[in-house]
C-alpha cells in the first residue's frame, strides 16, 4: 500500500487536522457488546490514521491508556513499536489515511483498542459527501447510543459481568463494582452536545487571508 500525504498539515504532532477533500459518514460500532454501543460521525475521508485514532477515543470516551491498531483482513496498521516481536510487524500507519484502508461507501475496517481487553470497533463507511455540501465543523457526531464501558473491565465478557453486578443490589459483587466504577456511571448515557464540544478541538482552523505589502507613495 503506497504512502499518501497525511491530513495533518503542520510541523510536529498536534490534535488538529487539515482542511479536508471529501467527507465520509462513518458508523462506529463496538463489537460483541449488548445492548449496542455505536456512534455515527462525519470525518474527512483523507484523515490520517493517528488522527482518526484520536477522534475515535473522543467518540467512545476512552482514555487513550492502551495500545491500538487498525486491521483490514490480515493487515495491521499501527505506530511502530521496536519492542514488539510479533510477526509480521504492523504497517507504519503514520502516513496512511482512512480512505486508503476503507476507500468507499460499503468499505470497512476494524479499530482495536487495549489488546488485553480486546475492544474491537467496526468502522463502516456509509456515505461519501462533497465537502461543499457539509456545513459546520468537522469531525461531528450525528448520533449514537450508550456510554463506552469502563476501562480495564475485561473486554466484552467482563463488561457483561460488570453490568450484571452493577445493576443488581443483591449481587455479591455489587458494592465492589459501584466503588470501582463510581456511583455515577450510567451505561445508557450519551450526550451528543457534550461530545461535539469535545470534538470541536480537532476542527481545522480557518486559513488566514494573506495580506499584500503596502504600496509606497511616490513623492
Protein architecture, described:
It is a single chain. With 219 residues, this protein is α+β, with helices and mostly antiparallel strands. The protein folds into 2 domains: 134 residues, Structural Genomics Hypothetical 15.5 Kd Protein In mrcA-pckA Intergenic Region, Chain A, CATH 3.10.290.30; 37 residues, no CATH class. The protein has 5 helices and 8 strands, in the order ββαβββαβββααα. An 8-stranded mixed sheet has the order 5-4-3-6-7-1-2-8, covered by helices on one side. A hairpin with a 2-residue loop joins β3 and β4. α3 crosses α4. The longest helix is centred in the C-terminal third of the chain and has 13 residues. The N terminus is likely disordered.
Q: How many DSSP-defined strands?
A: 8
Give the CATH level 1 class of the largest domain: Alpha Beta
Strand arrangement, major sheet = 5-4-3-6-7-1-2-8
Mean pLDDT: 87
- Total number of domains: 2
- Give the CATH architecture of the largest domain: Roll
| Gap between N and C termini | 62 Å
Shape: globular
Supply the CATH superfamily name of the largest domain: MM3350-like
Note the run of SSEs as H and E. Answer: EEHEEEHEEEHHH
Biggest sheet details: 8 strands, mixed
Strand portion: 15-25%
What share of residues is helical?
Answer: 10-25%
- How many separate helices? 5
Low-confidence stretches: 1-19
Radius of gyration: 21 Å
